[in-house]
Amino acid sequence: xxxxxxxxxxxxxxxIVEQLLxxxxxxxxxVRKPAKAAxxxxxxxxxxxxxxxxxxxxxxxxxxxxxxxxxxxxxRSMTKKQADLIDRQGIIAAIDAAAAAGVKRWIQVSMMGxxxxxxxxxxxxATGQAKHAADLHLARSGMTxxxxxxxxxxxxxxTGRVTVGEQVPEGSLTRADLAAVAVASLxxxxxxxxxxxxxxxxxxxxxxxxxLT
Length: 213
Fold this sequence. Notes:
Layout: E1 3-6, H1 11-22, E2 27-31, H2 34-37, E3 45-48, H3 56-64, E4 68-71, H4 80-101, E5 105-109, H5 125-139, E6 144-149, E7 152-154, E8 161-165, E9 172-174, H6 175-184, E10 194-200, E11 203-204, H7 205-210
Parallel strand pairs: 1-2, 1-4, 2-3, 4-5, 5-6, 6-10, 7-9
Antiparallel strand pairs: 8-10, 8-11
Helix pairs in contact: 1-6, 3-4, 4-5
């Protein structure tokens, strides 16, 4: 089962790639500059995919050999223009290309509160709105989908414990735990066609995901 990770060289994407490789999955990292990325991660095939400049033919080529997509991509800018370009337009174009190529499964890392801008500080609202639009588009794509909405992320060690639900208290979550949840969602049926928020602490990851209905 070939898994393509968008944002494979980002802080969270790198951890997702590492965990998938440890489980023995063939992994493709879809990044803007594959030649540069290839120097930083052994065992991963890197391919070019620029979310800021969607190319229909290129997107189709990337997803043609893919069975699952994990989207950990995100703009580094907080401006409305960049959020709309990457987190909405770019991701929607990728979703459409993946669905057309026959990809069956898409797991998306979104943002806590993106469906309710009032829960977000002003500087994050444009990003939240863009991610929410992409989340809704994914749910209509025909693929089996999962949307994970994490809170503030930290670079701490994995704890293996999370709380999930339609809406959970705000808090923080380690990137390592977020990566573990994304990877665990591959084969966890309660996460299929489901959007959920997540925060750190609570039950072991497998137990928490099993509570989703």
